[in-house]
Structures are given as C-alpha cells and as structure tokens.
Amino acid sequence: MLPTDVPALWLRDNCTCADCRDPLTDQKLFQITDLPEQLAVGTLRALDGGDAVDGAEGWEVVWAPDGHVSRYPAHWLQQTGEPDPRTEDAKDLWGSAATLADGLPETTWSAYLADDAERLRMLEAVARLGFCLLRDVPLRDGQAQQVARTFGFVRETNYGTQFEVRVEERPNNLAFTNVAITPHTDNPYRDPVPTLQLLHCLVNDAEGGDSGLVDGFAAAAALRESDVGAFAALTGTPVPFAFRDDVTELSTHRPLIGTDPMGRIREVRFNNRSLGTLRLPAEQTEAFYAGYRAFARLLLDPERQLDFKLGPGDCLVFDNTRLLHARTAFARGGARHLQGCYADLDGLLSTVGVLRRREAQPC
Ligand code: OGA
Ligand code: ZN
Ligand code: ZN
Predict the structure, then answer these.
(1) Which CATH number is 88-356 given?
(2) Could you give the residue range(s) of every CATH 3.30.2020.30 domain in the chain?
C-alpha cells in the first residue's frame, strides 16, 4: 500500500506529469497556491505490468477535488533524502593528520586530466575531506585559474582573478610578506565568501614557507562536544570582519561557526588578522571571547594540523568554508612564489554530480 503518512500536498507537489513539469527542462509549471485548498487522495490504484511507470511498479492517484491524475514509481516513494553536501553530515572529518586514513588525496595533473574516474576521486576528496593536491601542474602563469576551470569558475575579487603570493614591496596583506601566517580562512570579510581556494606553487626554494591545513569542522565538532556553551556563543554571535586598503573597504558580520537551520556545522570563518571590533553588551562579549579562545586553542593545536611543503608544480585545492590554511615564515631573501585564485563549491559539486552520472551510465 501507499504509506498512509505521506502528506497529500507533498505528493501532489511532486507530480511529474507533463502538465506539472515541463518535459524538456523538468522544471515545475505551477505555484503551490495553484493547488486545491481541500486537496485529498480521491482514488488510489496499484500499477504493475502494463500500467507500470516507465517499467517500474508504483501507484496512481486520482486527486480530489480536481480529478488530476498522478503516477509515482514505488522506488521513488521509498527514496530517502541525501544530506546537504555542504554540512558536516556529508563530510569525513579529520581531527589530525593521522586520521587521514588513506594518506593525502593526491594525483598528477596528467592523470587528473586523462581519467574521469581520477578527476572524480579528487573532486570528491575536496567535497568529503576538504582538499586535494595535484602534482606536476605546469609552471605557467595563470595555471591556478586553468585548474579551477576544469571543475568550475574563477571568482574575481579586489585581489584580481588571481593573486601572487610572494614578498611585495608594499603589501596590502600579510600574506604578501615573509612572515608566518597562522591557520585562517581567507576573506571572511566578504559575503558571499569564496568557498574554494587554489594555491599553485611556482617556486619554493626558501628556508621555511611550509604549509599546514586544519579541519575547522572537526575542531567545531570537538568544541560542541567539550563545551556546548562556547559552541552556542560562536554560532550565535555575528562577528565583524573587515579589510581595507587604499581602494577597498570590505566588511561583513558573520559568526565564526555557521550552522544550518538544523544546527549542523556548515561554515567556519577564522582569521585573527581581519577580525574587527565587536560592539555588544559586556555579557555577550565575554561569552564570545571565552568561546573564541576555546575554539582557537583547538584550531591552533599542532596535533590537528596536517603539515607539508608545497613544491614547484603542486596545486592545492581546498574548501575555504571548512579548512584553515597556514604557512611558516621564510627567509626574507628566499625565493618563494605561489599563484592563487578563488572559485566556488557549487561549481565543483555540480561537476561531481555530472561525473557520477556519467560513471553510472557509461555511453
Ligand atoms: C594566502 C595564504 C599561504 C602561503 O595567500 O591566503 O594564506 O602558503 N598563503 O603563502
Ligand atoms: Zn501532474
Ligand atoms: Zn590565506
């Protein structure tokens, strides 16, 4: 039988007949307000054999009061929902380098380009672990953007379509000096924040300049486990982030830990360089600072950090809403040059979806 607890309005809203959905685009043709107020299942009939929907068993509903006819395959009715791919429910959290069971998600540029399965494996690693590492990426100007274009779209910002991470004469950001950069997410002062970052190493001959990654979702989950009050203070306090230079004045108010309406971790922002001045009642300010310190202790714990050194040709692709990245200081005269760009997860997840579809139905 059709389960009795299926809400009528949900069922009708999901009718796939040609009057309800455009057969070419599969897009819905009606508004929710177009459906009858007194909607109810009129008659119900099992479909099998010759009546089946696209060869599958199912149900036919004739709706009251308007007599509209809908058909639903049984397998469709039994499907369960997928978790939001952006939330912690769809991630493999790693609390330390040691918990990355299968080692670094890495491949060569040529394997990535040549093989759809390898490309899918790398992009799924970004979705599930938060990063992947491509090796032997050509040492060409603009190559980080070329990498981004294999799965999505470059996000242009005030730093340009790409940015040069090297020692500048007059830097507008500490990233463009030789000092250590502690774990952070980029551009928390931007809304929407760039959800992906790419860093392509062209030269790294300097003493130092090693890289680090930290799983911000794992740290946020650990904070929730150890100190719910701190977690609540961070998810519930909008924090001002700001960046300014001669021609830029960016700011936004967002929490350090962003959750979805169900309370699941969905976004982390952490950047001591660009956190602005909080102006809230004393009690709230104190609660925020206690939480901020507790979260920072977790995030800055070296045990949580995956350490490695980028060499020429390495291109790191990572989720800037989840992972924090860092680099150690390097000798001032040392040669070090990365090119970076921003891109977005929606495009990457779309490419994952298309590659999975192709894998399921090889041509
Ligand atoms: C950056 C940054 C890291 C590095 O440019 O945002 O954090 O390895 N750079 O230089
Ligand atoms: Zn219909
Ligand atoms: Zn950065």
Answers:
(1) 3.60.130.10
(2) 3-78
- Which atom of ligand 1 approaches the CA of 163 most closely? 5
Lowest-confidence pick of 45-59, 177-191, 213-227: 45-59
pLDDT given for residue 363 in this prediction: 66
Tell which residue, 212, 232, 235, 238, has the closest CA to residue 308. 212
Strand partners, 163: 340
Predicted TM-score (pTM) of this structure: 0.96
Residues 228-285 pLDDT 10s: 999 999 999 999 999 999 999 999 999 999 999 999 999 999 999 999 999 999 999 9
CA distance 81 to 271: 34
16 CA to centre of ligand 2 in angstroms = 6
C-alpha 285 chain-centroid distance: 29
Instruction: Give percent of the chain with pLDDT exceeding 90.
Output: 91
* CATH domain 3-78 topology: NE0471 N-terminal domain-like (3.30.2020)
Within 6 A (CB) of ligand 1 lie 165, 175, 181, 186, 211, 325, 327, 338, 340
Q: Where in the chain is the domain with CATH 3.60.130.10?
A: 88-356
Torsion on CA atoms 109, 362, 153, 342, rounded to nearest 10: -50
CA of 29 to the centre of ligand 2 (A): 9
Q: Which atom of ligand 1 is nearest to the CA of 165?
A: 5
